[in-house]
């Protein structure tokens, strides 16, 4: 089963300070405990920006800062806590994070708050409440036990109240929290059903931004799936999703946003565009979920797929022209948004490939294969450049390469001349990061189903040997599997002899066996075990046929 990747809120992996101003790791605990308000704030911001923390003691220090006397420190601590939920949700809960955010919720969210006269302080408190709701959302996404503890909380009913009242300050975080809370949650969906008409009336309300409207549609989609109300999906879910995806946001960006972006009176063009992009991401997430299946089931969303909708999904996946992309390098935040939208589209495309035949029927197998390579070429250029959104680039290339792999395996016989891509795949494997290269190694096996020239076989062997030395254990598994798939018969034995492949396999196998035995990932360990068992048999077979 392939589900959508959650549209996680990324606002809290921010860098309002230059990274060189962050304290050294050895000084960070001192900053978090400092008597200086500014140093405590900087310490929290530094933790929010760390990809991983050294140990759990940092979680404890962040939790302590949530009740800091300074509102600015509180806010930064909440933002840091959000960044920690993916790895440390259980620890945050165990350390009492909920007890510390209760006063924020009780004083400023569940009642009409008495806010300070200072506009700056008032906005800071509103931002703290918003961030607290985003923290609750992240905990819902990462911790099922926490969802149970929220079932009868007044926070959930108040979120619905704020949404129906179109509360400008809180509608977005309330929708995000409710969507995380209601996924596969029957009790939550009963509550949504009670307010179904009130909620859907907001989808056509001119006061709401497109992203908030689509977040309401996501809420309705959760209700329809969990409560088995699939007859409502066409009108209340698919129709607004399709309408959202009809907008060509890339054309809007080129023609209406970039030309005025530096003008003072630009009518909030960038903000309006961002809202439209977010709406499309949510629409794609909804469709991706409706196309997810277990085993051999037909996905719920299969009945709603048509050529127009698939073409709109493909336009979102296509992104911008290479020439215009180069112009966007001066606007890294916009470039990042574009890549995020393309990622959402390709997660959807992946489910179309795996679980339906609609995409091939609409686009054609050869056209789609060519399209995927065109995307990889276009996006790979950004790997070589010093762009601020390299993480987005790598995620996008990873999902495109996954789609390429599963499409090749499913439809490899539906298009011809696959061998013409071998040289390009080998070049990309040497150029791209290991996770992406691993997917492309598997795609080599698909391309090598056709007859290879000696030069092509030699190129593949050299590429695989290079990857065997530079890659992680997952890549080594893919290398071995590619050798088994491509070189199992005798056609290319002369190349194996010329490049002394069997000798290299024998000399390197003991080291690989030792590394595999130490793996903690059980699934990867099992895959490596199977690959190494096959390696022993492959070597025996080749030696028996005179390949040494």
UniProtKB/TrEMBL annotation:
SYO1-like TPR repeats domain span: 304-544
SUPFAM superfamilies with a match to the protein in the record: ARM repeat
Single Gene Ontology BP annotation: protein import into nucleus
Gene3D superfamilies per record: Leucine-rich Repeat Variant
Molecular function GO terms recorded: unfolded protein binding
Classification via Pfam families: TPR_SYO1 (PF25567)
Entry-linked PANTHER family: HEAT REPEAT-CONTAINING PROTEIN 3
Family: Belongs to the nuclear import and ribosome assembly adapter family.
Name the record gives this protein: SYO1-like TPR repeats domain-containing protein
Originating organism: Blepharisma stoltei
